[in-house]
């Protein structure tokens, strides 16, 4: 049938393809350009990248076996053979610092992955759907946020047992409600937009709405929270390892190195400096980079 021919009476018109409305997508170009002008944030990012490289290529940087004991060489100061000295068991502090850096990066990945997998999808769903789903999930998140973080971590580790993975399950449970609240608020901010209603009118599923329209708008706030959450992970992991509930001996972590140095603080107090400086610099770099991201993204909205 040609276009000029009339449609016979009683015949349904051909279906018209309805295109899914385009929502406001995350535009990160200007935001990242603004971030690059922040020197403190860029220095912090360079430090964090260096930390990741040390963790990835740590086996090539170590000068000794980090767990090898030499009791005859215990508590030695820095030297040509042991660049940062030896601990109370004669183990090379420099090699253990590198090994502990690998543990810290692994801990951040494990805990943040768990928090993101649990917190972000549930938060986006609660903010978009609302109603009883939002009410139930929000009450659960508020209950977890009301608990003291370290106490909750100690309770989880006490049930599951010591070990890095179990400790990171505890930390992931601490961070999931924070990611839930941010993703939920971002989803609520766009759920009433006209393009969301238009997408629903053409049959878009909730999953498609979350993936194509809501999540890109929440990316900025979530990336900022991840940087601050990584600092929390380092502090909690170090605290648990200091108490003997994190990594298991003889595995090195910054917290276990602090615990070993604390046992010999009356003999060699200087050995507490290395892990303390590592923790402080890393948390400071994460906080500074997170502040830089917040300054660069602030005021432009999630739809920027």
From TrEMBL:
Entry keyword annotation includes Membrane: yes
Family, similarity comment: Belongs to the binding-protein-dependent transport system permease family.
Protein name according to UniProt: ABC transporter permease
ABC transmembrane type-1 domain location: 101-290
Pfam families: BPD_transp_1 (PF00528), OppC_N (PF12911)
UniProt keywords, alphabetically: Cell membrane, Membrane, Transmembrane, Transmembrane helix, Transport
Segments traversing the membrane: 40-61, 103-130, 150-176, 222-247, 267-290
Localisation per UniProt entry: Cell membrane
Membrane topology: Multi-pass membrane protein
Organism of this sequence: Rhodococcus artemisiae
Domain of life where this protein originates: Bacteria
InterPro entries found in the cross-reference section: BP-dependent_transpt_permease, MetI-like, MetI-like_sf, OppC_N
PROSITE patterns found in the cross-reference section: ABC_TM1
Cross-referenced CDD domains: TM_PBP2
Main location: membrane
């Amino acid at each position: 049938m040609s276009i000029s021919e009339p449609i016979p009476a009683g015949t349904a018109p051909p279906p018209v393809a309805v295109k899914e409305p385009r929502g406001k997508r995350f535009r990160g170009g200007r935001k990242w350009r603004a971030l690059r002008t922040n020197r403190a944030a860029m220095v912090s990012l360079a430090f964090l990248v260096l930390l990741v490289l040390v963790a990835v290529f740590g086996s090539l940087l170590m000068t000794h076996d980090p767990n090898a004991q030499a009791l005859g060489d215990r508590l030695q100061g820095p030297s040509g053979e042991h660049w940062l000295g030896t601990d109370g068991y004669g183990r090379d502090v420099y090699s253990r610092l590198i090994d502990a850096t690998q543990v810290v990066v692994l801990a951040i990945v494990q805990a943040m992955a768990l928090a993101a997998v649990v917190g972000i999808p549930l938060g986006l769903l609660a903010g978009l759907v609302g109603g009883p789903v939002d009410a139930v999930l929000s009450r659960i998140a508020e209950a977890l946020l009301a608990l003291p973080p370290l106490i909750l971590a100690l309770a989880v580790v006490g049930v599951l047992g010591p070990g890095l993975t179990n400790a990171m399950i505890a930390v992931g449970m601490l961070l999931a409600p924070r990611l839930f609240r941010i993703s939920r608020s971002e989803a609520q901010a766009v759920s009433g937009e006209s393009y969301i209603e238009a997408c629903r009118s053409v049959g878009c599923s909730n999953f498609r709405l979350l993936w194509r329209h809501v999540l890109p708008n929440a990316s900025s706030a979530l990336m900022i929270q991840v940087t601050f959450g990584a600092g929390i992970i380092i502090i909690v992991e170090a605290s648990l390892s200091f108490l003997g509930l994190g990594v298991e001996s003889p595995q090195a972590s910054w917290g276990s190195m602090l615990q070993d140095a604390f046992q010999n603080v009356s003999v060699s107090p200087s050995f507490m400096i290395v892990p303390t400086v590592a923790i402080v610099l890393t948390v400071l770099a994460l906080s500074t980079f997170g502040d830089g991201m917040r300054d660069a993204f602030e005021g432009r909205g999630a739809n920027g």
